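Notes from hallway chat w/ T.B., transcribed later so I don't forget. T.B. wanted the structure written out for a chain they're using in a teaching module, and asked if we could keep both sequence and C-alpha cells in one place. Agreed to drop them here.
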Amino acid sequence: MKKFVLATVLALASTCALAKDLSVIRFGVDPTFAPFESKNPDGQLVGFDIDLGNAICAQLKVKCVWYETAFDSIIPALRAKKFDAVLSAMTVNEKRKENVAFTDRLYNSPNRLIAKKDSGLLPTAESLKGKRVGIAQGTTQEAYAKAVWAPQGVILVSYTNQDVLYPDLISGRIDATLTDAAVADIGFLQTSNGTGFAFAGDAVTDEKLLGEGIAIGLRKDDQELTKAINGALAEMHKNGTYDAIQKKYFTFDIYN
C-alpha cells in the first residue's frame, strides 16, 4: 500500500512539474463528428472531445488552442507540427501507431452500419455485395471497408466527412454507411433527417483494423506532453471531472 501511495504521489508530482513547463496545448480537430466535436450556430467548437480537451488544459493549468483540420489530413498536419496533439475521436490502431504516439484511452464507441429500416442489409461482405456504402475519408471505417468489403464486391463511396455523406444516404445515392455508433445515433438517427433509418445488424469489430478505442494522438518524440496529458486524465477520473463531462452527453458509460 505504501508503495502504491508513493507511486501515486510521484506521478502527480511529475504531472505538476510537466505542467509548469507547458503554457499552451494546441489540439487539432475536425469538427464534423457531433456529439464529440462540432460547431454550434455561433461557430463555436462544442462537444464531448472539446470539453475533455479544455478540462485537460484546465487540469494542467495551460491554455487550450484548437486548430480545425480535415480528418484525412490530420496526422500529416500533426507531424508537420501545425499543432501538438489530435483530439478528434481518433481510434487507436496498429497502422496509426506507426506514425503517432497515443495517450491512455479516452473512451470506446462501436462501429455500426446504418441503412433504411426495411433494407434487410447486414454489415457483411455477402450482404453488401453490389451495394454502395458511404465512408468518411481517413477513418478506421474506411480502412476496414477497403480491406474487408471492397475485395468482395462492395462498392465504396468516399466522402470528406460524415456530415456530407448523409444527404446521399437519404436520397438513395448510397445504400448504407459504416460509421461511429455514438456519432450516428445522436447526430443522425435521433434527428428528423434520420427518420426511416436504423442500425443494421450487430456492431462491426476488428481490433487490427478498427482499433482499440479512442485516444489523443501525439508526435512520437513528445513523450513529456504524453505523460502530462495521461497524468491529467488520471486525475480527472479520480476527481470526477471525466464522469461529469460524459454524463453531459451520454446516458451510458462511454469509457468502458
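Follow-up for T.B.: The chain has a mean pLDDT of 90. Might be a good example for the class.
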